[in-house]
Here is the input.
Amino acid sequence: MSLDADTLADRRRLKRRLFFWRAGAIAAVAAAVIVLLAEGGVVLPGAQIARVSITGIIVDDRPQQEMLEQLAEDDNVKAVILSIDSPGGTTTGAEALFTSIRKVSEKKPVVAVLGTVAASGGYIAALSADHIVARGNTITGSIGVLFQWTQIEELLDNIGVEMKEIKSAPLKAEPNPFHKTSPEAIRVTQAMLDTSYEWFLRLVAERRNMDATKAKELGDGRVYTGWQAVENGLIDELGGEEQAIAWLASEHGIHEELPVRDWTPAYPELGMAGFAGRVLGEAAVTAIGGLGGKTQQAKRLTLDGLTSVWQPDL
Here is the structure.
């Protein structure tokens, strides 16, 4: 009986060993098949090129940044197409978007396809890509930074209204629309704007591989067509999404038959209370035809501080 029990135990141990060897062999074969399929140009299930649309006014957008973080970590996403149609927006929003896309580009190739307009902050978004494609008639460039305020002290004088204020220092809340702007307020505001402008020029020089002199020459605020932008080095080639995919295939080995999937940010639901507050807060927006949460009119009304925007139609 003792010998039979030992024999049975040995057989069980042998079966367990055989099971693990077989499982390991199956896993190795499966991995080899996957590698061979990928190298042979076969599209694997779930594999895709992600399309991210950057449209309208660019602002500091947390849901969009979170989406880009998820995209970067998704192994199914082999490359990213930025579809840009934007006149720009806040300089801070463009900076945040640029940073998020550069993090994506550390893990997978990114190509920008410019639509009707990709100017100012829209061009900053394009600079975050590894390759830029635009139509011949695309409007791009507008490299610069803007700070605006409305001067209404003469209007107030005409209607007999005087604005009184007490502040901690002369430059607090300057420039101010209710009185003439002092030379010192102009000076410090210009210095602030120059800092952001120099950052924009550095981006152009670094990302487009050009010297600082040429970047400043091109960055005088003017806009360019796609044809002009190719000639002066602000973009890489003319075309659309087809050319972008061809570049991904030739430069990064991305299969041209991969499906292109749209990725969009997940904005939180407002709920009834949020909806009521939104309606009351955006009455003026509704009057000019803006309905819904993140309308372009609402974004434009909230633009503040330094902006990198071309023709916002405010």
Residues 35-41, 272-298 have pLDDT under 50 and may be disordered. The first strand starts at residue 48 and ends at 58.
